[in-house]
Request: fold
Amino acid sequence: MSSNKKYWKSVEELNEDSSIVETLQQNEFVQEIPTDEFLGDKSSLENSSTSRRDFLKYVGFSTAAATLAACEGPVKKSIPYVVQPERIVPGVANYYATTIADGYDFASVLIKTREGRPIKVENNNLAVSNGDANARVHASVLSLYDSSRLQGPKKGAEDISWDSLDKEVGAKLNGLGSKQIVLLTQTFASPSTSKLVSDFRAKYQNVKHVVYDAVSNSEALDAYQMMYGERALADYDFAKVNTIVSIGADFLGDWQGGGYDSGYAKGRIPKNGKMSRHIQFEANMSLSGANADKRVQATPSQQKQVLAALYKYVTGSGSKGALDSGLDTEVVKAAKQIQKAGSNALVVTGIQDVDAQLVVLEINKAIKSKAFNESTPRTIRKGDAKAVAQLVKDMNAGRVGGLLIAGVNPMYSLPNASEFKSGLEKVDVSVAFSMHNDATAELCQYVATTPHYLESWGDVELKKGSYSLMQPTIRPLFDTRQFQETLLKWTGNTATYHDYIKNAWTGILGGTSWNQALHDGVLVKPILPKQELVDALDAPEGDIADIEAVPAPTVVGPNVGAAARRLSVTKSNDGLELTLYTKTSLGDGQQANNPWLQEMPDPITRTSWDNYLTVSKADADQLGLTNENVANGALNGSYAKVVVGGAEVTVPVIIQPGQAKGSVGLALGYGKSKGLKEDMNVGVNAYPLYQNLNAVQTVSVTAAEGTHEFACVQLHNTLMGRGDIVKETTLEIFNTKDHHEWNAIPEVSKNHIEYEVTSPEVDLWDEFDRSVGHHFNLSIDLNACTGCGACVIACHAENNVPVVGKSEVRRSRDMHWLRIDRYYSSQDSFEGDDNKKNAIAGLGSSLSEFGEMENPSENPQVVFQPVMCQHCNHAPCETVCPVAATSHGRQGQNHMAYNRCVGTRYCANNCPYKVRRFNWFLYNNNDEFDYHMNNDLGRMVLNPDVTVRSRGVMEKCSMCIQMTQKTILDAKRDGRAIKDGEFQTACSAACSSGAMVFGDVNDKDSEVAKLKEDDRMYHLLEHVGTKPNVMYHTKVRNTTEA
Amino acid sequence: MRQVKHRNSASKILILGTVFLFTFFNPVFAQDEAAVDNVAATEASSGGDVAKGEELFKSLCAACHKRYKKMTGPALFGVADKYEREWIYSWVKNSAAMVASGDPQAVAIYEEYNKTAMNAFPQLSNTDIDNIMAYVMVPKVEPPTPAPGNESSTASGSGSGVSMNVILAILALVFLMLLVVLFLVNKTLRSFAAANNVELPESEARTPIWKAFIQNQFLVLVTAIFLLLSSGYFVYGYFMQVGVDQGYAPIQPIHYSHKIHAGDNQIECKYCHSSARVSKTSGIPSLNVCMNCHKSISEVADATATPDHSKEFYDGEIQKLYDAVGWDASAQAYTGKTKPVKWVRIHNLPDFAYFNHSQHVSVAGVECQTCHGPVEEMEIMYQHAPLTMGWCINCHRETNVKVADNKYYEKIHKELSKKYGVEQLTAAQMGGLECGKCHY
Reply:
C-alpha cells in the first residue's frame, strides 16, 4: 500500500524559499567533491609516463608474480646436534624430578622435557608430601619462557658484567662499617641456603636475615612457636579425620601453603556408607566453603567469637562471650560433632590472630586430633611481619647499609611501599635478585638477575624430615646466576652451588645415594612421633571423655585460656570487614605475567583476567552496587571505592552469593604494573590495603563512577532444578535408599510406553560392537572434585590450547577444552531447587517462580562440575559435519581432524554439552594476541606431539589421544599387555584429589570399569541418549548432624 | 634420390654416437690393468702375501694406521725399510715393553705420538707381520691424470638420458626432412604436369571444415564436453600434485652419498638413524655419529670416485664434515669450534599429520626401503614416495599387522580375527584408518 507520507529531511524544508533546499535537491553530497584537487593538474597528468594501461599491467604482473611465488614450497632446514647428548633421543620425552620453591608454592614435581626443553609439569608420585602440583605450579613452566624476563645483570638501567658486579658490590659491602647488611628474602626452606646465609654472616659482620612472605602467616607461626617452641606451621593430614571444622581457613586454597586437597578428598568419597563431614564458618565464598557440607556465614569478627565459643563447648573451659543466636546454634552443633568424633575431628582456622591460632592448636590438642602430627611441622613459611616492619624503620633511620632482596618484591607487595622506597634511598648499596625488572628491581642499584627454578639447583625441607631436591632441567636461557651462587661468590667460596648442596646433604642423605635422591627428587627421613602421642593415637576411639582419661602431654605453654577470653570479647564490627584472599590462579601475584593463569577462570566467580570486590547482595543493594548482563551476554559491574586507613583503591564489584553480610573480599596478586607485558597488567593491586600484613581490615566502601567490563565465562549461576546435570543426594538417602531413587535413569516415552533411555528401543542409532580392543572412559567424581583447576592448566600445557585474551573471553570465545562449571542452588540446597521446580504446575506462577530460580540463594550450596568433550558413542556432532571432519574411533574417542574441518560450526551448535571451541582467529604468530604463542621463547612450551590449530577450525578435547596412543605404542614395542593405570589423560594425571580416573573399560579389572558399575555413576544429560564416554559420580553431601 | 642421401647421413650419426660411447670405456680398463701389474710387482719384491696382509691390516691396524698418511699412529708405508724386521716383530707384539725397556727408537715414537701406547698384538706370528709389511710396502698408486683428449668422450657418454634425447632429436629432424622432401616432390610433379599440359582435376569448392564443424551443433556439443572434461582432468591433476614433492632432491650442504654408505659399504640404516627404533622421528644423525667412522676415514678409496664425482670432490666433502664438527685431521684432535650443519629437510609431513617411525620400524618391522625407496642406490637422497594420505591409506589396507610374539596383540588379535573371520589382520582392520590415529 502506498502512502502519502512525506518524510522530512531537515527543518529547513519548512521554509519554502530556502535556497539550501533548492541547491541540495539535485546534489547527493552537501559539499562538492574535490575532484579538481587530484584531477585538475592537467599538465602533470599528461606528462605522466604511466598510463592507465601500464597501471593495469603492473597490477596484473605483480599479482601473477605473487601467485607464482606462493606456489613454491618452503625449504625447511633440519639441524642435528653436533654432539648429541647421550640421554636425549629426538622425539622422546625425558623426565626430571625437581621442586618448585618460589616462596609461595612448594611442591615436588616431575618435569617433562622434549629435546632438552621443559614442556610440562607433572605430579611426583614418589613424594609423600607436597607432591601435588596446583594450577600455578602446572603453569610455572610457561613462566620459564617469559619474554619479559631480564637477560643479564644490571646496574641501574645499564647492563653490567657479572665480574664487575661482584667487584663493585663486594667493595661496597666491605666498606659499610658498622651499618647493617640485611638479606630480605622469601622463605627458602632450604637447609643449604640456611647454611650459606650463616657463612655469609660469618664473612660480613652485622648481617641480618629478614624473611618476608608476601602473604603472611606470621601469627600462625608465632602461635606454633609459643606452643611447641618452633617457628613452623602445624601440619594436618585431612585423610585421617572424619569431621573437619574450619573457621575462615581456605585449606583447599592456599591456606598455610596449600596442598591439603588430596588428603581431604580421600575422606569425601563415601565408602562403606561413611564419609567425612565438613563444617565451614567463613566470610568470603572460598573453595573450602564451596565444598563444605555445611557452610555458615560469619564475618571475620564473628569468626573470632565463633572460635571462642567452640573452644568453650569443646573443652568446657573459657567463656562464650557475645554471639549471634543463629551462629550460636551452629557452633553448638559443630561442637557436638567434634565431641562425637573425638580424635577423628580437626579444627583449623585462617584467622590472622595469635590468640585464635593458639586456641585452635589447643582444641586439636585437647581432642588429640589424629590429623595433627606435631613432630613434622611445615617449614615452608618463615616470614616475620614484625621483622619486616622493623626493617622498614631501620632503613628510614639510616641504619641499613646494604640490602640484598631475593625472591620478593616489596615495592609491589608491601602495604607501606612508599616508606620502603624512601628507606631504600637511604641504603648505601641495594641489590635485587630478581627475574624481572619489577617495581623493586627498578629502584635497586644493582639487579643480579636470577634464573627460573627450572634452571636452578636447590634443596627444600618441605616439612620436618621431608626433603626435596631442585635440579636444572634446561641450561640457563639467559646470562643469569642464582642467588645462592652469588652468595657463594661473595663469601669467597669457589665451589659451585651444586657441590655446596651435595656437601650440605651428606648429613641428610644417610644411606641414600645422592644420585638416587636426585632421581627421586624427594627424600623422607622417618621422624618418630613422641611416645605419648603414639599412645594417645593407639587409644580406642570414643568420645572426648575417654580420651581425657589418657593424661595429656604436659606442655609449658602460653595461657590459652586468656587467649580464648580475649577472643570471646571481640566486638562485632559495625562497618564492613574486608578479607583479602588469594586466588587459585594468581596466588600472591608472582606469576602475573603468565597468560595461562590470567585466563584461568576463578573457580567461584568464573571470572578471568580480573580481581574484584566480592560483596553480598544485601550490602550491594544498600551501597547501590550492581551487576548486570549486557546485550552480548557479558557481565558488567559497578566500581567501588575501598578505603582502609589512608590507603584507597577503586575496584570493580561482583555480587557474590554466600558472601557474609557485612563483609567484603578482594584478591591479592593483581594490578602489577612493572616488569610484565601490558596485556597482563589487569586488576587492581590490593596490597596497599594489606595493612600490618593482616588480611582482615575494616573498610569503608562507597560506589564509584563508571562500569567495569568483566570477562566472565559463566553467567547462568543456578541449575534451575535440572537435577540431570548435577545429581546430588545426602549421605542419609545414599545409605538407606535404593540407587534408582536418588540416581534414576531417565525415561522417555515411545508409543506412550516409558522406556529407560539406555534401552535400545529408544535409540536412534544401531549399536556398534565396542567390546574389542581398548575402550576409554573418564570418570569424574563430583564428591572428590574440589574445583582447584589444576586440570585446566594441565590441559592447556598438554594440548597447546591458545590464550585468547580478555576481550575475546568476554565475547564467549574462550578456548578452554576443559572447563569447571560452578553452580549455586537458588534455595538453601539443590534438593530444595528440585522440589520447587517439581511443585510448579501450570502457567500460574511458573514464570515468576522460574525467574526466582535464576537467582542464587543468599547462602547457596555450591557444586563444581568439570566438563570436557563427553566423547559420546552416539555423538550429535558427528552426524552434522558436512565434511566428516569429526568421527568416532573404536577406542571410544571422538576424533577431530583439523585439516579436514572447514569451520561450519554445525557441530558446536549440535553439541548438547557446549564443549567445542572455534578458532575465531589465528592465535599464534599474531600480534593481536601477544601472549606466549607470539614469540619464539613462549612457543618453546608447545607440545610437539599436538597440532597447533589454525584459524577457522573447530577444536575440542581429544581425550589426550596422543597420550593413549603413546602408551599403546610403548607396550607394542615392549611386546607386553597394558596394565591398569598406564592410560592417563593430562587432566586425570594432574588430578591429585583422585576425582578423575581414566582407563580402559574393556579391561574388566580396571578401576574405571569398576567405577562404571558404581551406584553413583550417571552420564551428563543422559536423557539425550548420546551415550557419553565420560561419566560422573553423584555428589553426596553429609548432612547428618550430630 | 635425395631421401636416400639423408637416410645415409642419419645412420652415420647413430653409428658415430655408438663409437663415442665405446671409446669412453677403454681408458677405465687400461687403468685397472696397470694397478694389477703394480701389485704383482711389489709382491715379488718383499716376500710376503699382500692379500693376506691386507686382510690382517684392515682388521687389526686400520683403526689407527694408514699406509700413506699419519693418523693416530704413523703412516706405515716405508717402515719395513726404516726399521729392522726383528725390531718390528717385537714392537708389534708388545710395544709397551719396549718403551719401558728404554729402546731409543721405541721411546722416540712413543713421545712423538702423545705418549699413546700402541695395542699389543701377541697373537700375530712373524709371517703375519711379514704379510702386513708386504701390504704396507705397496707404493701408492698415483691416479693417472686423464688425457686432455678423453674429456669430450666422457662428456658425451655420461648418462643414457642425454643419448636418448639425441636420438629423439635426430628422429624429429628426419621427419622434418621427409616433410620437406614430400613438398618438393609434389611441387616438382605439379610443374611436370603443367609442362606436359596434363589437366589436374580441380577440387570442388567445399565448405571449409571449420565452417562445417560450427554448423554441426552436435559435434560442437560433443567437442565442448570433451574439452571441458579433459581440462577438468588436467586441472584436477595439477591441483592434486600441489604440495606433493615426490622426487624432491635438494642440494645439501654436504654431499652425502647414501649409495656409498648404505649401498657400497652396507651400513645398516639404523646404525645412523638410530632413533627410528624408539622415536617418532628417524633423526638426522648427529655429527659425532659420523665421526665414529670418519675419525679414521679421512679420504675415500680411489675406486669410490665416479665420473660425476672425483675422489677430490668426496675428500672435500669429508673435510666439510671435519670443519663442521671441529676436527683437525692433521693434529688428530677436536678444536672445539663447531658449525652445525643445516641440512635441507626432504621428507616433510604437514604438522597436522602424526607419523611415528618406531611404530613402523620396530613394531611392524617395515623395511626402510618400503617408503624411502632404493636408498642404497641414491647418490643424492630424494623423496621416493609421494607421502600423500592416499599412499598411507593404501598401505594400511594391504599390510598385515605383525602380531607374532607380541603379547600386546594377543587379546585384540584373537577377538578381531574372530570378528572378521580372517587369520591375518590388516592395519586397516586394526583401526589404522581412523582419522584420530594420525590427526591430533
